[in-house]
Design goal:
23 strands, 46% helix, four-stranded antiparallel beta sheet, 760 residues, alpha+beta, Arc Repressor Mutant, subunit A
Length: 760
């Protein structure tokens, strides 16, 4: 369609109404609606002297919106035409805030009026890749699109945009090696050792200057004095297989078979000596554009990266003619454009096959630059990469989120998360931070792996059950990687709670008690069993903490004595938010099957490959030993090799003593080098054996230390020197530090007082 039609899609007279209809589905409308409802006191913030929880305020604001503006929450399939805006002050105020504060509707209308009056000139261009502004739209957040996120992701991936690292990256990953370019160019140019080979070269290239002719005949056994090339050319001219073509001020050597094509390009060229071609060579009538395209094609096969200006000088053609020929070859997939030389400013073109060879040689050079580090230096790197040492430890809510992004989808015993793993990485860890991330919808929890024992009554207790913290946006990918859930035998109470959640959706604890007809203590026991089996989750992590409290210490429902008020300071399952089924249950099977079109195993494996890189910085086959997903290194290796070819990661030999392929993030290589060059600070680091950094027996020789929360490992300078197993201390290296210091480091914990009731 004509590109300039796009500029007439919006009209200044109707854009306000269109924008109002569009913003009703945008997140800013619901956010500003809650703000207006709260400040107008339509939704109270306090009740009975206590502050109302934010999730409850959101629910009340949604109920108010459903009462005054039901079309906003209704399914669009049931609405014909535009949604009718009600005459309600809060709705009008919210729309006005969206139009004038979040957006500039007056400015938009003025721009459209100026376009209609011709004061602003609009220019449409058909380009092979999006402009920076268009790329910004394509890479927008999922809520910027009306279709679902997987479709938006596929559309974004279908459009190629240059990465910043291709030219200006400080690590140089996206820039091709200049030596590799020169080597490929030298190898691609034909070397003729006989008259027949020179004729083949002329047929391939089309036209060749005298300087190029001398370069062609410089084989390994010939001197570079031009005598050999002249001898071969004389043989071809004498047999009427070649001639010289005078084009302007340049003299070219051509093969006789190429003369009809070159006549179409250079009609005024003069042959010296003149050739009389047989009728068999006049069979095809060449169009000038086709002839130029084939001439450029032959040149691109042997010249490597080259600019249009250089081709114009060599072939004595107009810039526009060369440009049109290259665009035609690009549409065939024969050539690619880019900036391939590290020091070039002009756009270059290169044959696809030659560019692939340059990429391979560049990767070989990058891999050769890296010197492997020892295992104990790699351990020091891992402590810094995962913020487990004192120098790199993070802090605060944002620091906790960055740690959870690293550990996304990692399954650990439930008791290990807040008693050992998170406090080891986040200074002054506060459990309220994790609850805030869960309530905000950024983080969720649940068991992702399928229980090996189908008998629920024989399953492990919740405290030792593998529980993962994951980014909610990745949940569909992680579930696509898990094995199908086998039939599980549930207790009577667990089955009742499961069916209540299956029929009622997400429910608060009090609603679960009412729907199931069970006692609160029975519902707690059922939720503990369902959570251990990976069937349920809740809005916050507080629900899991509440299930870890012994039954004789839990707050009693409906009691208000001083004793029970003291117990109320502990986590209560009533304040854990809503409980819901993880979408792996049978009731969600249809939804999962429908989503599998977008969340295929291949897409999920690539997501996992990137997360594994983010978790360890450097990955290899042994990195999968602590992972619960059934993924093979063969599947990951294909993805990592593809990312390496794109220049996003680097392959090489980074860690000594580890066999097989290794891949690393660019920023990880810089940290690894700095760790290797720096002197050790002799810091003692104590980790739980359930920590993801327990690679004893995987990276180091000797038996593995069981990944139980109570087991602990003591490190110094990246070396494991002692371990606490089954309450007994075992030295792994002798003569490192005094026994008393080892005893104190392994036995004395630093658990936050507010967490002791749950994890002691």
């Amino acid at each position: 369609f004509p590109l300039d039609e796009v500029f007439r899609y919006l009209n200044s007279e109707t854009v306000r109404d269109l924008l109002v209809q569009a913003l009703l589905d945008a997140p800013m409308f619901t956010i500003r609606w809650r703000w207006n409802a709260t400040r107008s006191l339509a939704v109270p913030r306090f009740r009975g002297g206590a502050k109302i929880a934010a999730p409850l305020q959101r629910m009340e604001s949604e109920n108010l919106l459903a009462a005054v503006f039901p079309d906003q929450l209704a399914c669009l399939e049931h609405i014909v035409g535009d949604r009718e805006i009600p005459d309600h002050p809060l709705v009008k105020q919210t729309i006005e805030d969206c139009l004038t504060e979040a957006m500039d509707i007056d400015g938009l209308e003025e721009v459209l009026r100026r376009i209609e009056r011709g004061e602003i000139r609009c220019i449409a261009r058909d380009l092979p890749e999006p402009s920076p502004l268009a790329a910004e739209i394509l890479n927008a957040r999922p809520y910027a699109f009306l279709d679902n996120a997987p479709l938006e992701e596929r559309r974004t991936q279908a459009v190629y945009t240059r990465r910043a690292s291709e030219r200006n990256g400080s690590d140089g990953l996206g820039v091709l090696d200049a030596a590799a370019i020169e080597k490929v160019k030298a190898e691609a140019w034909p070397a003729a050792t006989s008259a027949d080979e020179l004729h083949d070269a002329l047929m391939l290239i089309g036209v060749m200057t005298c300087e190029e002719l001398q370069r062609t005949s410089n084989g390994e056994s010939h001197a570079s004095n031009g005598a050999v090339s002249a001898h071969f050319l004389q043989e071809l001219v004498a047999s009427h297989r070649a001639t010289q073509l005078q084009i302007g001020h340049k003299l070219f050597v051509i093969a006789a078979e190429r003369l009809p094509m070159l006549r179409a390009i250079y009609p005024n060229a003069v042959c010296e000596p003149e050739l009389v071609l047989p009728d068999s060579m006049h069979g095809k009538t060449w169009e000038r554009t086709d002839a130029i395209r084939e001439l450029v094609r032959g040149r691109m096969e042997v010249c490597g990266p080259i600019t249009i200006s250089e081709l114009t000088d060599v072939l004595v053609l107009e810039h526009s003619e060369i440009d049109a020929a290259l665009l035609a070859l690009e549409s065939e997939g024969f050539v690619l454009r880019g900036k391939f030389h590290p020091d070039t400013a002009e756009q270059e073109w290169c044959d696809r096959g030659l560019l692939a060879q340059i990429h391979r040689l560049t990767i070989v050079r990058l891999r050769a630059e890296i010197q492997p580090v020892s295992i104990h230096d790699f351990y020091r790197f891992l402590f810094a990469w995962q913020r487990a040492d004192q120098e790199h430890r993070t802090e605060g809510l944002e620091g906790l989120q960055s740690i959870l992004e690293q550990l996304d989808g990692c399954e650990l015993p439930l008791a290990a998360w807040e008693s050992a793993v998170l406090p080891a990485r986040v200074a002054d860890y506060d459990p309220e931070w994790l609850d805030r991330l869960c309530f905000s919808g950024r983080v969720g929890w649940g068991r992702l792996s399928t229980p090996q024992n189908s008998n629920a009554r024989a399953s492990a207790p919740l405290r030792t059950s593998p529980i993962a913290l994951y980014l909610r946006e990745n949940l569909a990918d992680w579930l696509a990687l898990t094995l199908p859930n086998s039939a599980t035998e549930l207790s009577v109470n667990s089955q009742a709670v499961f069916e209540a959640l299956q029929s009622g959706g997400a429910l608060f604890f009090s609603e679960l008690v009412n729907r199931s007809g069970l006692l609160p203590s029975q519902v707690e026991e059922a939720l503990s069993q369902l959570a251990a089996l990976g069937l349920v989750t809740s809005d916050s992590f507080d629900g899991l903490r509440a299930l870890l409290i012994p039954s004789n210490k839990r707050p009693t429902f409906g009691r208000n004595t001083a004793k029970h008020r003291r117990r109320a300071n502990l986590a209560s399952i009533e304040f854990a938010g809503r409980w819901s089924l993880l979408p792996r249950s049978s009731c969600f099977s249809a939804a999962i099957d429908a989503a599998n079109g977008a969340h295929t195993r291949e897409v999920a494996i690539e997501k996992f490959a990137r997360v594994l890189l983010r978790r360890y910085g450097i990955v290899f086959r042994r990195s999968l030993e602590r992972e619960s997903f059934p993924i093979t290194w063969y599947e990951l290796g294909r993805i990592y090799r593809r990312l390496e070819a794109r220049g996003e990661i680097r392959g090489g030999y980074f860690v000594g003593g580890v066999s097989g392929e290794q891949f690393a993030l660019p920023e990880a290589i810089g940290l690894l080098r700095s760790i290797r060059k720096s002197s050790s600070n002799r810091e003692l680091i104590t980790l739980s054996a359930a920590d993801p950094l327990n690679l004893q027996g995987i990276l180091t020789p000797g038996a593995r230390i069981p990944a139980f929360t109570a087991n602990r490992i003591l490190f110094r300078d990246g070396l494991p020197i002692a371990a606490l197993e089954s309450r007994d201390i075992r030295k792994l290296l002798e003569g490192q530090i005094p026994d008393l210091q080892i005893e104190n480091a392994l036995r004395i914990g630093k658990l936050r007082p507010s967490l002791r009731p749950y994890y002691k």
